[in-house]
Amino acid sequence: GAVVSQHPSRVICKSGTSVKIECRSLDFQATTMFWYRQFPKKSLMLMATSNEGSKATYEQGVEKDKFLINHASLTLSTLTVTSAHPEDSSFYICSAGDALEGTNSPLHFGNGTRLTVT
Amino acid sequence: AQSVSQHNHHVILSEAASLELGCNYSYGGTVNLFWYVQYPGQHLQLLLKYFSGDPLVKGIKGFEAEFIKSKFSFNLRKPSVQWSDTAEYFCAVTGSNTGKLIFGQGTTLQVKP
């Protein structure tokens, strides 16, 4: 089945540094990818919609200058957490839908990235 | 505002017991509904989905869910759980013209052998 690869799976960084997380669709093309953040109480919050070749659409309350999203190709979206702070420590998950199946197709999720900011 | 509410946060069952996890949503317009499962240490996987048609949807591993439009509900059921069903379960909703998922808070299911 469709696979979404997310890298790295775990990262520890110092406060003030930036971290880049990659999300790749391995066997399908995704014009749209989604970035979620999973909080300790388990709920997943949609952060932004990544659109291939155009600017990402951010959800209300998500700082676009802090969470930079780039979707340069049909198989790759990146999330960069800039000037990371301890409160950015979380589990970040990306998802993608097969462009051929349309917007109603179920999403395929990456394994997630555990970010710890010290 | 769009939202999904899962009533049970932590459920503990013995093997062979029946399972029902509640999910209610608030969403204007036509909805697509999903249940995802996250086994320990693994990524989210789709259990089942409802787009249209028969409101009783059957998914993988013996799970099913029923869409009751009048109650804005999409409860997940399984007649007899197994220890391997121990996982986090998430209900999610999206509109018919968008791929953005709104997730519920999740339910931790613990099945005792």
Structural write-up:
The complex is a heterodimer of chains A (118) and B (113). The model of chain A has no long low-confidence stretch (mean pLDDT 89). By secondary structure, chain A is an all-beta fold. In chain A, strands 2, 4, 5, 6, 9, 10 and 11 form a seven-stranded mixed sheet that branches. Chain A has strands at residues 4-7, 10-13, 19-25, 32-38, 44-51, 57-58, 67-73, 76-81, 90-96, 108-109, 113-117. The radius of gyration of chain B is 13 Å and the shape is globular. In chain B, the strands form three sheets. In chain B, strands 2, 5, 6, 10, 11 and 12 form a six-stranded mixed sheet that branches. In chain B, strands 3-9-8-7 form a four-stranded antiparallel sheet, with no helix packed on it. By secondary structure, chain B is mostly beta strands. Chain B has no helices and twelve strands. In chain B, 0% of the residues lie in helices and 52% in strands. In chain B, β10 (87-95) and β11 form a beta hairpin. Chains A and B meet through β4 and β5 of A and β5, β6 and β11 of B.
Class from helix and strand fractions of chain B: mainly beta
SSE run of chain A: EEEEEEEEEEE
- Give the fraction of residues assigned to helices of chain A: under 10%
Order of helices and strands of chain B: EEEEEEEEEEEE
Walk me through the topology:
The complex is a heterodimer of chains A (118) and B (113).
Chain A lengths: L3 E4 L2 E4 L5 E7 L6 E7 L5 E8 L5 E2 L8 E7 L2 E6 L8 E7 L11 E2 L3 E5 L1
Parallel strand pairs in A: 2-11
Antiparallel strand pairs in A: 1-3, 3-8, 4-5, 4-9, 5-6, 7-8, 9-10, 9-11
Chain B lengths: L2 E3 L4 E5 L4 E3 L2 E3 L4 E8 L6 E6 L5 E3 L5 E5 L4 E6 L8 E9 L6 E2 L3 E6 L1
